[in-house]
What we know:
A: 10 strands, C: globular, PhnI (chain C), Carbon-phosphorus lyase complex subunit PhnI (chain C), lyase (chain C)
Amino acid sequence: MTDLQMTRPLFSVRDLEKRYGARIGCTGVSFDLYPGEVMGIVGESGSGKSTLLGCLAGHMAPDAGTIAYDGRDVLAMSEPERRRMARTDWAFVHQNPRDGLRLSVSAGGNVGERLMAVGGRNYGKIRDTATDWLGRVEIAADRIDDRPSAFSGGMQQRLQIARNLVTGPRLVFMDEPTGGLDVSVQARLLDLIRGLVRRMGLSAIVVTHDLAVVRLLADRLMVMKGGRVIEAGLTDQVLDDPQHAYTQLLVSSVLQV
Amino acid sequence: MTDQAYNFAYLDEDTKRMIRRAILKGVAIPGYQVPFASREMPMPYGWGTGGVQVTAACLTPEDTLKVIDQGADDTTNAVSIRRFFQRTADVAVTEHTRDATLIQTRHRIPEEPLTEDQIMVFQVPIPEPLRFLEPRETETRKMHELSDYGLMHVKLYEDIAKNGHIATAYDYPVMVEEHYVMSPSPIPRFDNPKLDRSPALMLFGAGREQRIYALPPYTKVRSLDFEDHPFEASKADHACDLCGAEDSYLDEVIVDDAGGRMFVCSDTDHCAGRRAAGHVGRLGAGTEDVK
Amino acid sequence: MYVAVKGGERAIDAAHDWLARERRGAPELAEIGNDQIAGQLKLATDRVMAEGSLYDRDLAALAIRQARGDLIEAIFLIRAYRTTLPRFGHSVPVETAAMACIRRISATFKDAPGGQILGPTFDYTHRLIDFALLAEGAVPPPRDPETMPHVTGFLGRDGLIEAADPDDTEPGDLTRTPLSLPADRALRLQALARADEGFILSLAYSTQRGYGRTHAFVGELRIGLVTVEMEIPELGLSIALGEVELTECETVNQFLGSKTEPAQFTRGYGLVLGQSERKAIAMSLVDRALRWKELGEDFTGAPAQDEEFVLSHCDNIQATGFLEHIKLPHYVDFQSELELIRRIRAEALKQGTADTTEPEDRA
């Protein structure tokens, strides 16, 4: 971790706030994310973690605060710049794969879309890359021309991950990536994600209500309640020795992994 | 004889000015779809109201007009539109491509190369090349704005994955000056290469969808494809049975109850010109009298 | 023998002659008169005025006659004529509170100042064919119209319904500016007022069945004459141009409220040229469904909530033109598809992968 601290942060957030009228979505959120680091954001529903992720990923505009990516002010970017970044440097894995996939397009087309969006114009190469990526997410190569609507939930989620990672992004946002899956499927998917994140040296921000997910994936952790970060630190530290009463409650209410 | 109740070429001058502004904007931004306040014309939407309005805005009394539909001057809708302008503008009309100063067309580009002195007006049913991939206008406009065309290539990718070919035979999307993806209107893809660097001004009018777009002379127009699946301007593998032409786009005609076929030039002026010059196809001799 | 290419001119002339004969019908019967259509088929005439968006009863009747009773064709004739007319400006908003009503009902209050007037309605007729119509019958004498206040005004006085403040912004004009989305409410109402009655009816019905439910009550439905006035800047006053008959429907819908704002009913509005309460009610339901965003409701994916869907498909002249254009020749595009499909099949057969399973539908 000390090596990471020496380098410049990849992603810096300061005093972020989002309100819905008089109600607070999230407020006073500040953190740095270093290259290769995975940040977990946990909290129960309504804690503001999804609002925060939405603001970070550019899906909604915060009311106050700053976000810098690789030294650039994200909120000041023009829409074309932001979209270009969203399909090259960034990736977003939705909780429901149906939100992140084109269900009427074949698995190969789903994986190939980002390649084509950034100028890929060789059918054979696109197909080879797609085949390679299906392998990496443990989908058989002969399913390349099948539509994801025929896939199981776990396969759809793995396909979504392949579709997102194919262009080699540096920062991945994940919204409850294992939500809605069977426990056995969850474990396999988590293993897969961990392997990919480590091998590709990805930075990631993972939002979840599931402490097992952060235990396995995240280097650091932020605990949210009522729109505020109430505790932050190294994952093991926070989970093994929670300081805040709410975190203690959260940790004690789940089975340890 | 013009119909005195209406202005020259039917539309009032203010409307024509509005349309000309849209055309000029289109010429200035090749391939960009310019919204315009399409008028309700005395012919149905989808039957060429966009083309008719563009033609009306461009016509001068000195023009010579040619109207074709499916390549032919005598298909009913071409006749109807030509008569409309004879009645409302009293302009000279012709069936000869080379004599025309303005050609309104539906679904074809004439075989004879066009010149700098000519304007082509295309009737366009759906101007948005992304429409069947993304039905929302609000979203497709954004995709054009950002040149976000990954989805367009996904469609081509899916075609090849499924059929081994890009399964778009007409209205084959083109990239204009490496910026905007544009619908060339439902011309067969055989005609696509005629758009590239054409000396003639190409104008596209979509009345129902309220859009005008343009290709100024000598604009670079590239049909979308993959490096390893290049675009092909294909046609039926036959020669014209009337004039023997091997390089013109062909109509297939069923000629008897047994399903017998013949292939003839879809461009009737081109075919007639070749026959007048003495070219004879497989069945050409017996058909002189049916012209 | 190959004759298809030539003959278009003669075919069109012959078709026009034939049409003229058919329009006249059996020559031994008297020709139907314009005033008969306008007077005795008034509701058909009103629909042509409303969707043609031109208030001219005689012209609408003539169009119906020319169109052989095909109302969409008649609307088309009116639209094509309307577009050639010069525009002087726009009128002052008509004062429907001052309407001389021939019909006025409320489904929200049993009685209100002015009372309920059933007027000339089919509502409580038994839908039995009236064979007596085959013979001439005597008709009861007409009744004088009355003016009366708006029912929703009483709700508004107590703050029970959202305010509908006057707005002096000059409304856009769909026929002069291309529709751009999102559209404001004025533009949406304009589009709905000339939209196809059947389309709007079905959409409104779908909201009642749960696709974008708005819990509408007919606060008031009224039909009658209003005066159309226009401001003449040169004169510094407004002058009356004449009277038009309108049908107006105001619905009272599910209420909204929050901690800061007390609950209020919301409004849906319909206004149609001539007499068409089916259209006016349907319009007010669709108007209300389309307002989900400004009222802070959820988009449930219902067609009636989808502004782009509704506005892009509600015009029957656009729809019928595009629908029917597929009967025009498409030799060229069809030929290009034919050529391609033959090629793909030939290659597949050559490769011996000649399984003729159904190809998947295209994305």
